[in-house]
Amino acid sequence: MCSIASSPSELGGCNSANNNNNNSSSGVASSGIGGLNASGGSGVSVGVVVVGGHQQLVGSSMVQHGTEVGGHHHQVGMCHDGLAGTANELTVYDVIMCVSQAHRLNCSYTEELTRDLMRRPVTVPQNGIANSVAESLEFQKIWLWQQFSARVTPGVQRIVEFAKRVPGFCDFTQDDQLILIKLGFFEVWLTHVARLINEATLTLDDGAYLTRQQLEILYDSDFVNALLNFANTLNVYGLSDTEIGLFSAMVLLASDRAGLSEPKVIGRARELVAEALRVQILRSRTGSPQALQLMPALEAKIPELRSLGAKHFSHLDWLRTCWTKLRLPPLFAEIFDIPKADDEL
Q1: What residue segments make up the domains of the chain, in order of their start?
Q2: Beta-ladder partners of 50
Q3: What is the C-alpha separation between 46 and 344, in angstroms, rounded?
Q4: Pairing of strands 54-58, 67-69
Q5: 69 pairs with which residues across the strands?
Q6: How far, in Å, CA of 51 to CA of 219, rounded?
Q7: Nearest residue to 47 via CA among 138, 140, 177
Q8: Do the bridges between strand 120-121 and strand 208-211 make them parallel or antiparallel, or are there none, so unpaired?
Q9: What residue stretches are annotated with the NR LBD domain (predicted)?
Q10: pLDDT category, 14, cuts 50, 70, 90?
Q11: DSSP collapsed to 3 states, the chain
Q12: Distances, alpha carbon 173 to alpha carbons 12, 36, 38, 187, in Å
């Protein structure tokens, strides 16, 4: 019932079950995470692709489905009749298995990958030409954003791949897929990185960590307090990787995002994932009096997470204003609607 590729390099396009064969190719190669093909057979893709050496999240380009391996195109369907096309026929246990495998394949913050992580500080170099405190702070902010964005950006590819494996996701229209990924990326990423956050630091998947003070340079103290509080309270629940994956899928499948054309379809997929998380919590905590309280507690965390996502987007206004002063990864700029230089388009 749940078909999973054996390695990330085998992942292909995300095709809805009701697509026709009117797919077009622009000669743009997939970056290894494929396009997310729209429902209705338009052949328009959404996904992360490589254009002129730069990764881009696209919603209107015609993208060849499949992966490029060794210069040869490999057409490997990911979301097909055995998964996305029959999401309503999947049992709760099928959903648990599919989402759990998707999370383990595409999350760099699993317990296994972070268990022996070697942590090291992100050290800002001295700026010998700053003439004032304001100039020094701006230099630090620019440098930290460049370091932070470079480490966050690979998560876009992983979360796109994760989304493609969530039952029902490939049934959504192309535009709805793009909206869910763009508006939900930070919230899903924060859910993943939370296990490496404590009261004083945020550690990234390569072991580099930012201090609270550095985070306050990027954002402000109120936002950082809210972010750390969310992560620390989520960590108290002691979620397994399977539970984090299911919770992440719930966060992604937010049927009330602005601009969605088929919120009811998305809502049904979310209900399926929510039931799977509820079952997983109960069966992994047999006899625990806290088990029945955990699902409502997690549901209550989602509005808090949504608020953080909205505030984070607002904080990026500084980057949208000062984008000419620093070089951000094109994919990071794309997903957060930050202007890019002409040579990065």
Answers
A1: 87-328
A2: 55
A3: 18
A4: unpaired
A5: 72
A6: 31
A7: 177
A8: parallel
A9: 109-338
A10: low
A11: CCCCCCCHHHCCCECCCCCCCCCCCCCCCEEEEEEEECCCCCCCEEEEEEECCEEEEECCCCCCCCEEECCEEECCCCECCCCHHHHHHCCHHHHHHHHHHHHHHHCCCCHHHHCCCCCEECCCCCCCCCCCHHHHHHHHHHHHHHHHHHHHCHHHHHHHHHHHCCCCHHHCCHHHHHHHHHHHHHHHHHHHHHHHECCCEEECCCCEEEEHHHHHHHCCHHHHHHHHHHHHHHHHCCCCHHHHHHHHHHHHCCCCCCCCCCHHHHHHHHHHHHHHHHHHHHHHCCCCCCHHHHHHHHHHHHHHHHHHHHHHHHHCHHHHHHHHHCCCCHHHHHHCCCCCCHHHC
A12: 18, 10, 5, 21
Sequence letter at residue 276: A
pLDDT tens digits, 37-96: 433 333 334 454 443 444 455 443 323 333 332 333 333 234 433 444 445 568 999 999
Amino acid at 174: Q
CB 65 within 8 A of CB 34: yes
Residue 172, judged by CB atoms within 10 A of its CB (0-12, 13-18, 19+), counts as buried
Length of the chain equals 345
Residue 200: CB atoms within 10 Å = 11
From the list 320, 332, 331, 313, the residue with the least C-alpha distance to 258 is 313
Check if the beta carbon of residue 98 is closer than 8 Å to that of residue 83: yes
CATH 3.40.525.10 fits 87-328, yes or no: no
Q: Give every CB contact of residue 301 below 8 A, 6+ residues apart in sequence.
A: 230, 233, 234
Average pLDDT of the residues in 244-253: 99
